[in-house]
UniProtKB/TrEMBL annotation, chain A:
<dbReference type="Pfam" id="PF16381">
    <property type="entry name" value="Coatomer_g_Cpla"/>
</dbReference>
<comment type="function">
    <text>The coatomer is a cytosolic protein complex that binds to dilysine motifs and reversibly associates with Golgi non-clathrin-coated vesicles, which further mediate biosynthetic protein transport from the ER, via the Golgi up to the trans Golgi network. Coatomer complex is required for budding from Golgi membranes, and is essential for the retrograde Golgi-to-ER transport of dilysine-tagged proteins.</text>
</comment>
<dbReference type="InterPro" id="IPR016024">
    <property type="entry name" value="ARM-type_fold"/>
</dbReference>
<dbReference type="InterPro" id="IPR002553">
    <property type="entry name" value="Clathrin/coatomer_adapt-like_N"/>
</dbReference>
<dbReference type="InterPro" id="IPR032154">
    <property type="entry name" value="Coatomer_g_Cpla"/>
</dbReference>
<keyword id="KW-0813">Transport</keyword>
<dbReference type="GO" id="GO:0000139">
    <property type="term" value="C:Golgi membrane"/>
</dbReference>
<feature type="region of interest" description="Disordered">
    <location>
        <begin position="1"/>
        <end position="20"/>
    </location>
</feature>
<dbReference type="InterPro" id="IPR012295">
    <property type="entry name" value="TBP_dom_sf"/>
</dbReference>
From TrEMBL, chain B:
<keyword id="KW-0968">Cytoplasmic vesicle</keyword>
<keyword id="KW-0963">Cytoplasm</keyword>
<dbReference type="InterPro" id="IPR011012">
    <property type="entry name" value="Longin-like_dom_sf"/>
</dbReference>
<dbReference type="GO" id="GO:0000139">
    <property type="term" value="C:Golgi membrane"/>
</dbReference>
<dbReference type="InterPro" id="IPR039652">
    <property type="entry name" value="Coatomer_zeta"/>
</dbReference>
<keyword id="KW-0813">Transport</keyword>
<dbReference type="GO" id="GO:0006886">
    <property type="term" value="P:intracellular protein transport"/>
</dbReference>
<feature type="domain" description="AP complex mu/sigma subunit">
    <location>
        <begin position="13"/>
        <end position="151"/>
    </location>
</feature>
<keyword id="KW-0931">ER-Golgi transport</keyword>
């Protein structure tokens, strides 16, 4: 028998609890009802129950209630351990069993009893079963317990009040005097808990909190935890008051840097580093204590110090330079998290010469750190690349070796993103980068990354000096990969064929082979591309291969759906589909560059409905505005009122092929008024004609409403701009601010708004042409206009570029919106579609002259002569 | 990864855990709903264990949390808090937990001993942290509060009061016999 048990124990690693059955353990709980109680045996059973609950076993309410009632019998035993286990049991079961309040009286007896060992834990158990109703009855005892001379009792009462206070503050508020008294306790923990409770009670009252901090900062607390808490309270006050280092609170925090306990010193340094309005000078003392911690034998302290220094380095790299030597020592730290943080900090503060050495150092332990930290390293490298473009060689090699190593999808994606950014930012790094990516897709398990890289190769590869070397890599994908990757490879191949004439015959051969593919999509693409390439027409190549479709996917879906619903003899017109504001693949890089410009969420990867689609949907719901044709463009909202005025009005301009709809989003900020029949009257603009007002029937307080004004554009095709004076007209009715019930009588009133302008940009939709040169040829010189302008008000090329893009409302292509540093001339390429579906391209050659600002030679090509004229004269 | 200032509060511990050398839970306490279900909790523990059981590095940032840990023979002790939390506070709680359990197990910090004294370990953890608030971080005070089977604690580590208490009891028993 004995032998058998030993064997069994060995099998499960000597864990006597590992094979417990819930039902049999609960069965055993009946032993609790036996008299006399055997404390040892019952304690063991209770431990088993606790173990089961702790393992996450779910116990039903009935079972739990049964066990709970059995457990209450154990109060008869005087055994200390058993009684304490019963408290634990009560706490665990308080959430699952019914009628737990029956133990209240037993617990209250223990709480006020003579046995100090029972009093603290019984208070905590009692509060776990107490609800708001019962709180009243124990209030008196809680107050006494808070100021009890036994520290365990006092702490237990304070902590429990804290838990209770989370639900409602009303009761605990009345215990403020007791808490105040407890802060003066000699016991460190009691002091800490009392301070926490006191702050919790008073946190709504800023003045009281401020007084509290002032008082305790002089009072010199004993508990380091209490100090940490006080520092946090103080820094929160500084934050809220937007105060800087002149605040007396700041002095207190700075003084804490000289405390004898490391925990407090670190908390103070951390608080100073995280403050918003700190100068480099304020940081110095904090940085120097962190520097000291870098040499500590305790890993936790080193970790904390480096992490905080890393944070400092983001904003004030110069402040951390003093610690460079200490950080260098941490590069070889056994804790890889510390080493990684040290290196990334150094990368931020270091200079160009140290990059090589640091990179070598990181590569020695890259394999040992977690993916999360690897991504941190990749991000550090990314910023390094833009800081020291000349170092791209070393960094690129490093990134390539990381690509080869094991790693999860997020990590690989971070590296690929990083390489792509480097390629885009630094033309010198392009070929090396593409070569690394080619190598990577040879053995890449992530379809998303492979297709992305193939797309990039198709775009960038043909324009490198030797495009032929990429063909092999791409065609290998066609042979070896899954359908999605094969299709992407086919598209990439076609782009090489379209762009490089000498490669055309071989590309056609390869594409013809792809027509035998087993997948429909791949075959379709191959057939399509081969037939276009065989035409050998530049305009076709540009329109269908190099610069694909430019409509919004959601818009296309809806347009096609509508077309199928209403059968008609006319063929489907692609021009009726709203254009995509940005092609989906570009979205990420573009939005991160011009943050928020297009008002689309940043992390948009799926084709989600864009703003224009939302507006189109909204406008189609207004019957008065039907039959205007497809929506062409919607502008960004413009404020027509100062903020904080009686009425807040925003205007969005929607351009249709012959009309402009002005959408006014109105908010009434007066709670004693209701506006009715709200419209916006517009006047001015030669040739523009107001057609219709769509009124907003009622505009109650704080509920946004919309009114529209429809204007027909002038017949004259080149007259596109105009200024309108606007006034809000409405009927005011006074109302009761509380009920919102309006009076019957109202009177007419009007409110003058700011002017609205219709500019050239309102008629142009941004469109990105990945291959600008091809489009330029595609449109041809037929309607070309060229002129030279002196932009005397511009002082730099960047400024000129920014303003031209703004005036014309077109999309910069080929990254030409970025002016390389130190250049005195630059060429800007812009692409767009003019109202009516006319392609428009602009090439602006800019030169910076010393005396007369920027000189610009503007060339416009378009499929319509009027459009060329409008654009050419827009800048003047 | 970025810090920021934490709301001043007593609630500083998100979880405590003791795992064995296969990453199985021996004890785990979660004090907020970062991991609401038992399945998510165990999954987290498994992943945490895999990341930490080889390198004895004491601290790691993991799944957006700061975890400090310590191991001995076949036991792994973890204290988990927010990444904005003062790492040294978490460290002090870990030390309190380890030291007090070490005293309870009479320096015999291993799985078998821990399971034999599981009741005392539960009581100790209950005295260290209550619902996420640090209740006591001094290991001597914790062991004193647990005060379990004090006759088993070696003489050298007992307080005078404990010695007197046990002496009194022994005399009482000898008289009764």
């Amino acid at each position: 028998m004995m032998l058998k048990r030993d064997k069994k124990e060995e099998e499960d690693g000597g864990n006597p609890f590992s094979n417990l059955e819930k039902s049999s353990v609960l069965q055993e709980a009946r032993t609790f009802n036996e008299t006399p109680i055997n404390p040892r045996k019952c304690g063991h059973i209770l431990t088993k129950i606790l173990y089961l609950i702790n393992q996450g076993e779910t116990i039903g309410a009935t079972e739990a209630t049964e066990a709970f009632f059995a457990m209450t019998k154990l109060f008869q035993s005087k055994d200390t351990t058993l009684r304490r286990l019963v408290y634990l049991g009560i706490k665990e079961m308080s959430k699952i069993a019914n009628d737990v309040i029956i133990v209240t009286s037993s617990l209250m007896k223990d709480m006020t009893g003579k046995e100090d060992q029972f009093r603290g834990p019984s208070i905590r158990a009692l509060c776990s079963i107490t609800d708001q109703m019962m709180l009243q009855s124990i209030e008196r005892y809680m107050k006494q317990a808070i100021v009890d001379k036994v520290s365990a009792v006092s702490s237990a009462a304070l902590v429990s009040s804290m838990h209770l206070g989370r639900g409602s503050q009303d009761v605990t508020k009345r215990w403020v005097n007791e808490a105040q008294e407890a802060v003066n306790s000699d016991n460190m923990m009691v002091q800490y808990h009392a301070l926490g409770l006191l702050y919790h009670i008073r946190k709504k009252d800023k003045l009281a909190v401020s007084r509290m901090v002032t008082k305790f900062s002089k009072h010199s607390l004993r508990s380091p935890y209490a100090y940490c808490l006080l520092i946090r309270i103080a820094s929160k006050l500084i934050e809220e008051e937007d105060a800087g280092s002149e605040s007396p609170m700041f002095d207190f925090i700075e003084n804490c840097l000289r405390h004898k306990n490391e925990m407090v010193i670190y908390e103070a340094a951390h608080a100073i580093v995280n403050m918003k309005n700190t100068t480099a000078k304020d940081l110095t003392p904090a940085v120097s204590v962190l520097q000291l911690f870098c040499g500590s034998p305790k890993p936790t302290l080193r970790f904390a110090a480096v992490r905080t220094l890393n944070k400092v380095a983001m904003k004030h790299p110069a402040a951390v330079t003093a610690c460079n030597l200490d950080l260098e020592n941490l590069i070889t730290d056994v804790n890889r998290s510390i080493a990684t943080l040290a290196i990334t900090t150094l990368l931020k503060t270091g200079n160009e010469s140290s990059v090589d050495r640091l990179m070598k150092q990181i590569s020695t332990f890259m394999s040992e750190i977690s993916d999360e930290f690897k991504i941190v390293v990749v991000q550090a490298i990314r910023s390094l690349c833009s800081k020291f473009p000349r170092k791209h060689n070393v960094l690129m090699t490093f990134l390539a070796s990381m690509l080869r190593d094991e790693g999860g999808f997020d990590y690989k994606r971070a590296i690929v993103d990083c390489i792509i950014t480097v390629i885009e930012e630094n033309p010198e790094a392009k070929e090396a980068g593409l070569a690394h990516l080619c190598e990577f897709i040879e053995d890449c398990e992530h379809t998303v990354l492979a297709t992305r890289i193939l797309h990039l190769l198709g775009r960038e590869g043909p324009r490198t000096p030797s495009p032929s070397k990429y063909i092999r890599f791409i065609y290998n994908r066609v042979i070896l990969e899954n359908a999605a990757v094969r299709a992407a490879a086919v598209s990439a191949l076609a782009k090489f064929g379209a762009h490089c004439e000498e490669l055309l015959p071989s590309c056609i051969v390869l594409l013809e082979r792809c027509q035998l593919d087993s997948d429909d999509e791949v075959r379709d693409r191959a057939t399509f591309y081969t037939s276009i390439l065989k035409q050998q027409q530049k305009s076709l190549n540009s329109a269908y291969i190099l610069n694909g479709l430019q409509v919004s996917v959601v818009g296309l879906e809806r347009a096609v759906h509508n077309y199928t619903l209403e059968p008609s003899d006319t063929p489907f017109d692609l021009k009726s589909v709203p254009l995509a504001t940005q092609p989906m693949t570009e979205q990420k890089t573009v939005t991160s560059r011009e943050t928020g410009d297009m008002g689309v969420p940043k992390s948009m990867e799926k084709p989600v409905a864009s703003r224009i689609d939302v507006y189109a949907e909204q406008l189609s719901g207004v019957p008065e505005l039907a039959n205007l044709g497809p929506l062409f463009r919607s502008s960004q909202p413009v404020e027509l009122t100062e903020s904080e005025t009686e009425y807040v009005i925003q205007c969005v301009k929607h351009t249709f092929s012959h009309y402009v709809v002005f959408q006014f989003d109105c908010t009434n900020t007066l709670n004693d008024q209701v506006l009715e029949n709200v419209t916006v009257h517009m006047e001015g603009g030669d040739g523009f004609e107001v057609m219709k007002y769509v009124k907003c029937a009622s505009l109650p307080y704080d509920k946004p409403g919309i009114t529209y004004t429809l204007i027909r554009l002038p017949e004259e095709p080149t007259a596109v701009t105009g200024t309108f004076t606007c006034s809000l007209k409405f009927i005011v009715k006074d109302c009761d601010p509380n009920t919102g019930e309006p009076d019957d009588e109202g009177y007419e009133d009007e409110y003058v708004l700011e002017d609205v302008e219709v500019t050239v940009a309102d008629h142009v939709q941004r469109v990105i042409k990945p291959n600008f040169g091809a489009s330029w040829e595609e449109v041809g010189p037929e309607n070309e206009l060229e002129d030279t302008y002196a932009l005397s008000s511009m002082n730099s090329l960047e400024e000129a570029v920014k303003n031209i893009v703004l005036y014309l409302g077109m999309q910069p292509c080929e990254r030409s919106d970025k002016v390389p540093e130190g250049k005195s001339s630059h060429t800007l390429y812009l692409a767009g579609v003019f109202r009516g579906g006319h392609d428009a391209l602009v090439r602006a050659k800019l030169a910076l002259t010393d005396d007369s600002g920027v000189t610009m030679q503007l060339t416009v090509r378009s499929s319509d002569p009027n459009v060329s004229e409008i654009l050419a004269s827009a800048i003047a | 990864m970025d810090g920021g200032i934490l709301e001043p509060s007593l609630y500083s511990i998100k979880a405590l855990a003791i795992l064995d050398n296969d990453g199985n839970r021996l004890l785990a306490k979660y004090y907020d709903d970062t991991f609401p279900t038992a399945k998510e909790q165990k999954n987290f523990e498994k992943n945490l264990f895999n990341k930490t059981h080889r390198a004895n590095a004491e601290i790691i940032m993991f799944e957006g949390l700061t975890c400090v840990y310590k191991s001995n023979v076949d036991l792994f002790f973890y204290v988990i808090g927010s990444t904005q939390e003062n790492e040294l506070i978490l460290g002090s709680v870990l030390n309190a937990m380890y030291d007090s359990i070490s005293q309870i197990l009479r320096k015999n910090v291993e799985k078998r001993a821990l399971l034999e004294n599981l009741d005392a370990v539960y009581l100790a953890v209950d005295e260290i942290c209550d619902g996420g608030i640090i209740l006591e971080a001094d290991s001597i005070a914790i062991v004193h509060k647990v005060a379990i089977r004090n006759d088993d604690i070696p003489l050298g580590e007992q307080t005078v009061a404990q010695v007197l208490q046990s002496a009194k009891e022994q005399i009482k028993w000898s008289l009764l016999k």
